[in-house]
Amino acid sequence: QDIGASIAVLVFPTVGPAGMVTLRLVFSALILLAIARPQLRGIPRRGWLLVTVFGVSLGAMNLLFYQAISRVDLGATVTIEVLGPLVLSVVVARRPSAWLWALLAFAGVALLGYGSFGDLDPVGVAFALAAGVAWAGYILASRRTGQVFEGLDGLAIAMSIGAVLSLPFGIAQAGVQLIQPPILALGIAVAVLSSTIPYALELIALRRISASAFSVLMSSSPAIAIAAGFIVLGQTIGWIQGAGIVLVIIASIGAVRSADRGTPPVP
User: Fold this and answer.
1) Which of 62, 215, 250, 265 has the fewest other C-beta atoms within 10 Å?
2) Residue 256, SS3?
3) pLDDT in tens, 165-193
4) What are the phi and psi torsion angles at 238 (to 5°)?
5) How many CB atoms lie within 10 A of CB 151?
6) CA of 225: how far to CAs of 37, 116, 128, 215, in Å?
7) CA distances (Å), 187 to each of 11, 25, 66, 235, in order?
């Protein structure tokens, strides 16, 4: 997924973050609709409400995340974004000791910006934090959708909703650049790498493993993002900032394990 995001950054000068999100979600929706061919008739009102929430959270998460990585390095953005699922797991753990993990994570973010707060665009940081909130909502909605809808039906419908919501932003920012053949080709690549395959696998995984176990796997996201940013974009990070990212990863693992011993993060 982070490799796809790295490729998307390369296209930002042409179509902007919103334009890239639109391409990503539209092509992902088309691919998933062709694969799943969901039956829209017979979906109860509760099902439509659930899949709409899923689609809105999915679209918002992508729009906010891409706005963030257009201003802040990929590794730093993902480190800040992961605070959303982390705080969610701490809150549902309902035990005071879980908040120690949250403090450790915030200390990690402080180290991430140590000596370079001026280099971390405050607007980009705000977008990353908002993306973290949307990511927490995405995890909740994805698990519930996977329990209600069969196969990839729920994801296909939610992706379509997210794509429709992103269209006005993408068209306003990129205009006719969205339909240039080279841009369309890159949009398909990003859609497959960043949305179609990862989201489908995540939906399937959340049907088979607990949300806390899933969150442990997601806690490695900052490290993966740093690697992707270095390989594709040539982005580097200092040892102090690297230590901060390690603290966030450790805090994420500790928090979700604490939640697993208490109340499950997602009922």
Assistant:
1) 250
2) helix
3) 999 999 999 888 888 888 888 888 888 87
4) -75, 170
5) 15
6) 33, 19, 14, 16
7) 9, 9, 14, 22
